[in-house]
Amino acid sequence: MRLEVASENSVILYVTYSPSRASIRRLQSLCDLIRLSLGASLVDLVPSYTSILISFNPLQTNHRQVGQKVKELIPSLKDYHSPQLSGKLVRMPVYYGEEVALDLERIAKFHSIKPEAVITAHCQKIYDVFAIGFAPGFAYLGEVEAHIAMPRLPSPRAIIPAGSVAIADQQTAIYPFATPGGWNIIGRCPSVLFDPNTDPCMPYQVGDQVQFMAISKEEFIELGGTL
Hints:
The chain has helices spanning about 20-40, 65-75, 105-110, 115-125, 215-220; strands at about 1-5, 10-15, 40-45, 50-55, 90-95, 125-130, 140, 155-160, 165-170, 170-175, 180, 185-190, 210-215.
């Protein structure tokens, strides 16, 4: 593990884990221990694939003290298992119609398969939620099957509609809001992915699993989706 200064009130902890379901659990366990150790001086924790951003209150602690406390936690990590990981399976509905699947045909041609084969492969796999970032509710899900993986677009689109389901390399995700984006769009999900007024505010968390379900246009509209 390697600890570096990230800003005047944060450090970032890099770990050597390869992204996997086991590494998610180790990172979450480490987050739990950091919360317990730093207590009220902790402002925020942001885990990613192989790192954790630790933000702290500079009036209560400093970089050196935080670093020392984190290093002291490492020996106890192997015997600690996070109770925070629910590991639930979340099924997300997706409409894969051509009017919303902007890149589905291109992905199919790239791999010399039919669009229906792309949809089938995308729905059959169960994906791990590796990280949540870029925007609230944007979950990085992996990994898609190699025969539907696709490089990011050479130039990002100015606006990706909210709910767009996308593939980039061997990851897949749903855009929770209308934002710029360079991922390949294959469908649209009608579900709300982030609502700060609900608890929980997202349908999934790191450590959960996601499976996509193909739905019709009628079902998409009935569930609140917009074209």
